[in-house]
Write a structure and sequence with these properties.
The structure holds two protein chains of two kinds. A four-stranded mixed beta sheet of chain A has the order 1-2-4-3. The radius of gyration of chain A is 13 Å and the shape is globular. In chain A, α1 packs across α4 and α3 crosses α4. By secondary structure, chain A is an alpha+beta fold. About 12% of the residues of chain A have low confidence. Helix content of chain A is 32%, strand content 18%. Chain A has one domain: 2-Layer Sandwich (Translation Initiation Factor IF3). Chain B has one domain: 3-Layer(aba) Sandwich (Rossmann fold), CATH 3.40.50.720. Chain B is 34% helix and 18% strand. In chain B, the strands form two sheets. Chain B has an eight-stranded mixed beta sheet, with helices on both faces. The longest helix of chain B is centred in the C-terminal third of the chain and has 19 residues. Chain B is globular and about 60 Å long. Chain B starts with a strand and ends with a helix. The chains are: A alpha+beta, B alpha/beta.
Chain lengths: 125, 279
Amino acid sequence: MRADDDIRFLKSIKKPITSGETIAMVPSLVGTPSQARGETMETVNVDRQINLKGEVCPYTFIKSLLTLEEMEAGQVLRVVVDYLPSVENVPQSLKNEGHDIVEVAQINDTDWAITVRKLALDEEE
Amino acid sequence: MKGTYLGFTDEQIRRYSRQIVLPGVGGKGQRKLLGAKVFLVGAGGLGSPAAVYLAAAGVGKLGICDSDHVDLSNLQRQILHHTNDLGKPKVVSAAETIADINPDVEVVQHPVRLSSENILDIITDYDIVLEGSDNFPTKYLVNDACFLAGKPNVHAGIFRFEGQVTVFRPGKGCLRCIWPAPPPPGLVPSCQEAGVLGALPGIVGAIQATEVIKLILGLGEPLVGRMLVFDALRMEFYTARCNQRHDCALCGDNPTIKELIDYEQFCGIPSEQSQAGAL
């Protein structure tokens, strides 16, 4: 299963990533629009960041969704989580909603950052 | 993680999480539900499941209109009321049940009989009307009042093993487009005489609640211009078209009904009991 592969991939990354270092990417979750634009963390402007440490699924996803609702299309949200299943589930669910996953990266021993761009087409009436 | 998040309490995010994640709902939709005001005609067989699901979904204000008291014969289908509620006004019993389900919901009790004198003043405070009465005079009164007041009317009726649901959106058809006037007294037996399968209003009332939620959220295709008919014995649903009629006396091109009408009660039971009750 692709999802299992992703989790194994994430778990295999032991080394904490410090600022400026190469950031881990989850191949199947990272959206092609970002890749097509050749974006990296160095070129992406994060418009908003939320700290969801201590939260579990599905609330990590729901709070990410609620935050994206308040943002403009094209803006970038960075979500910090420390619940491992959320590292897979949140990007997958956001991608299912049509958002563009820019990056999923481990930022220290316990925390992960999910960087997502709000989809350009607002589904609201 | 106590506190609030973007206007929701953590408890609300948990309570409504399964519908916030639905496509087309989200936080914006949940806020629409929490800000919505729905008026339920009758706290009986149809009003019970409808009120329970609307309350659970977080519809912010539910007006419940019923002048009846809880009777033992109600409990076979009217799930807002319980054995220890016997004798209580139905609006009180309903408000207590709803408070137990969801404290986010404000219940406004209307322990009155609807008439041409009071209905327009009452429904003006609400966005949508859910019609679950047990008699034709009330169904026609609500139909006419909703058209005149410009309120969507989520209408239903049940009889023995069969139910019907439709949505009357003002200007898109009404009860009189289907049946121009109530049936003559004595033609249709009341539920007291005819009986009703308890789970039937459960299904039909839940469909009404679904339609109300769709209207609030602006989702999907409401049952406008279509009547959904449910036959519990055959376990079949079918829909019949019921478009607006240009010759409708209420909503047609040359309307003749411009004021509300209080029809005589004719359910074969004394009028004080019949209009008060709900299916």
